[in-house]
Design goal:
eleven-stranded mixed beta sheet, alpha/beta
């Protein structure tokens, strides 16, 4: 087994079951080297690893359990870790077992999991958790009151199809079965197949400002006021007793136990070891037990809800995750001054993510449904207001426009667009697979017309792979398939296609003016 935390220079050696020393100071934070686990959109693990290398200078290891990467950073870099665009949830690794041998009988296997608790090196990961908490508390203190009214729960027909939005309070990790200690039993299934299509949230949510102030200042301020997460009984009279839950994500068919049973017994041992109080809903600490065949990872969650909810406040029936939108945009490698179009933008997840991360490009979003355009416009306004709050002055704006149009008859000149990125209708929640047989070829033709010959590219997401392949074969003279990324979208097996525009001239359409 490999320990999840390594000692920095000059740090005292810590025993696996040693007493916690309370919140880490800024100096300790600079010495702690934390192994961070991150859940990412399935299929975009390499994209996330490239972002970590680029922004944090750390090499990542991609887990055998799809949708997860691991990388090591100084604990003082936590604010930068939270600003990563491609990760959904974060956790600090307590310990990882790459080839854990489970006993054949259920009782013995569960007893081993119980015994594991008191042998794990909890102290340093808990200090990382406390540092992370101090950042969250400082951020909430600095955050101003919400500038938006309560969410509307509108439902509409005909909005451009995107991935199902992840409702507040749903499973934290995509493609996994979540089970917590003491919760009611649930059926245990293989990781890749369990997650059903997620329900529409329709709830407006005011996101916290993802930007953090100076790292050192944040680590210093508030660290002394954290609840102690040390081991055993609380060290001071009147100290807060932490509440916790254990979440088990299990995949594999050779285990003699269910996720619920593992979470229950492991959670019982955690409670006995720390004298924490179990609470399934209002918890301070979430301990993660990830089991993928013989790979076991124990961690402590650093995010309360998925980071993919950062941009959208007005949801539609199908709202793409911002993390998946980032992965799609990064796939087409935007360059400064590129014109990027999403002709079926829905609630605007792709162009908003693009304008935020690639402000030197110009982004155009459009949809044929007026309600979708209205929602996208509201999301853009929310982003602008968030910028004004953050900068305490008039924000410079974002390079993004939203238009209502017909995807098959776009009011754009031939050959004027560098990149097209879009989530195409799946034919499930919106439209139908029958309609897609006519829609897809017409879309590809019109996209080919507006895209720059030779250098233009398109990144398109769809679950209707058969229909898309047929349409692409008919448009082979103007589009060449470059790369395919297989992704899991709310339990649906979908594909992201990178297409490159050929030099062939596209059919000219009638004048629009």
């Amino acid at each position: 087994p490999s320990a999840g935390l390594r000692q920095g220079p000059g740090m005292a050696e810590t025993e696996a079951g040693g007493d916690g020393q309370g919140p880490a100071s800024c100096e300790e934070g600079s010495k702690l080297a934390a192994v961070i686990g991150a859940t990412v959109p399935t299929g975009f693990e390499l994209t996330a690893a490239a972002e970590v290398q680029e922004k944090l200078g750390s090499a990542s290891r991609i887990s055998r359990d799809r949708g997860k990467i691991y990388f090591e950073v100084p604990a003082g870099s936590l604010p930068q870790v939270h600003r990563l665009r491609s990760v959904d949830n974060l956790f600090v690794v307590v310990q990882e077992f790459k080839d854990y041998q489970f006993k054949a009988s259920k009782e013995d296997a569960l007893k081993d999991l119980e015994d594991m608790v008191k042998k794990l090196p909890w102290t340093s990961p808990l200090k990382v958790w406390e540092l992370n908490n101090s950042l969250k508390k400082k951020k909430s203190r600095r955050k101003k009151p919400s500038v938006h009214p309560a969410a509307s729960r509108e439902k509409l027909q005909g909005e451009g199809e995107e991935e199902g939005s992840d409702p507040k309070g749903t499973n934290r990790e995509e493609d996994s079965t979540e089970n917590s200690a003491s919760v009611e039993p649930a059926s245990d299934q293989n990781t890749e197949e369990t997650k059903a299509a997620e329900a529409q949230s329709g709830e407006e949510e005011q996101e916290e400002d993802p930007e953090q102030a100076n790292t050192k200042d944040e680590l210093q301020e508030g660290s002394g006021s954290e609840a102690k997460a040390g081991e055993g009984q609380p060290s001071e009279a009147g100290s807060k007793v932490l509440k916790f839950r254990v979440t088990c994500n299990r995949a594999g068919d050779k285990h003699s136990f269910t996720s619920n049973e593992a979470a229950r017994d492991f959670g019982g041992a955690v409670q006995e070891h720390f004298q924490w109080k179990a609470d399934m809903t209002d918890f301070d600490v979430e301990v993660l037990l990830n089991i993928h065949n013989n790979e076991v990872v124990v961690g402590i969650a650093l995010t309360e809800e998925s980071l993919h909810r950062r941009n959208i406040t007005h949801f539609g029936p199908t709202t793409l995750r911002s993390t998946l939108a980032y992965g799609m945009l990064r796939l087409c490698d935007p360059q400064p001054t590129d014109i990027i179009v999403d002709p079926m933008c829905g609630t605007g997840a792709i162009p908003i993510e693009g304008a935020t991360e690639w402000p030197s490009c110009y982004h155009i979003a459009g949809d044929n449904n007026p309600q979708a355009v209205k929602r996208a416009a509201n999301n853009i306004c929310s982003l602008l207001k968030k910028q004004e709050i953050k900068e305490s002055s008039t924000a410079p704006g974002i390079p993004l426009d939203i238009i209502q149009w017909d995807i098959c008859n776009l009011p754009l000149r031939t050959g004027c667009v560098d990149i097209i990125v879009s989530d195409m209708p799946f034919g499930k929640r919106i439209g139908s697979k029958k309609k897609n047989w006519d829609l897809y070829p017409a879309c590809l033709m019109e996209m080919g017309r507006i895209c720059v010959p030779g250098t233009g590219r398109a990144v398109l997401l769809t679950q209707d792979k058969k229909c898309f392949a047929k349409a692409l074969s008919r448009m082979g003279h103007i589009w060449r398939k470059g790369q395919t990324v297989w992704v899991n979208v709310g339990g649906l097996h979908a594909a992201v296609y990178l297409l490159r525009r050929t030099w062939e001239r596209a059919e000219e359409r009638r004048s629009f003016w």
